[in-house]
């Protein structure tokens, strides 16, 4: 198993954080697979091959959704922001800003501090 998903020494991370990192890596891998299938489907001419690849891509959609749901269940702030963005009508960026503000993080990165990345406002809000 690769350990490139860690930015801190894995042995110093609690098991819950290592699991979270694994699911983040899995989410990324599923998104990449969805994109690869999209490219393959765009150029494939054989109808039977297309059917097989569409079925495979659908499986990747399911895996992506399951990974995302796991991560959202473990991260209440992320879940709250996602609820304000996903499946909403209108401008996506505006919905994101409103969701961020609704989560008490302010717009554009949180904290309401000019130039802030909002990282400080997330203390205690994570895992």
TrEMBL record:
It comes from the Bacteria. InterPro entries: EncFtn-like, Ferritin-like_SF. Residues 97-127 are annotated as: Disordered. It is found in: Encapsulin nanocompartment. GO terms for cellular component: encapsulin nanocompartment. GO terms for biological process: intracellular iron ion homeostasis. Residues 103-127 have a biased composition (Gly residues). GO terms for molecular function: metal ion binding. The keyword Protein transport does not apply. Keywords: Encapsulin nanocompartment, Iron, Iron storage, Metal-binding. This is Rubrerythrin. It comes from Solirubrobacter pauli.
């Amino acid at each position: 198993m690769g350990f490139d998903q860690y930015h801190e020494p894995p042995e110093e991370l609690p098991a819950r954080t290592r699991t979270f990192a694994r699911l983040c890596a899995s989410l990324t891998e599923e998104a990449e697979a969805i994109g690869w299938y999209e490219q393959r489907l765009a150029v494939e001419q054989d109808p039977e091959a297309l059917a097989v690849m569409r079925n495979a891509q659908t499986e990747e959609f399911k895996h992506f959704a399951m990974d995302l749901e796991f991560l959202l269940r473990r991260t209440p702030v992320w879940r709250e922001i996602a609820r304000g963005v996903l499946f909403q009508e209108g401008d996506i960026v505006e919905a994101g800003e409103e969701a961020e503000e609704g989560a008490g993080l302010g717009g554009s990165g949180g904290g309401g501090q000019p130039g802030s990345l909002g990282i400080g406002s997330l203390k205690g809000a994570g895992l």
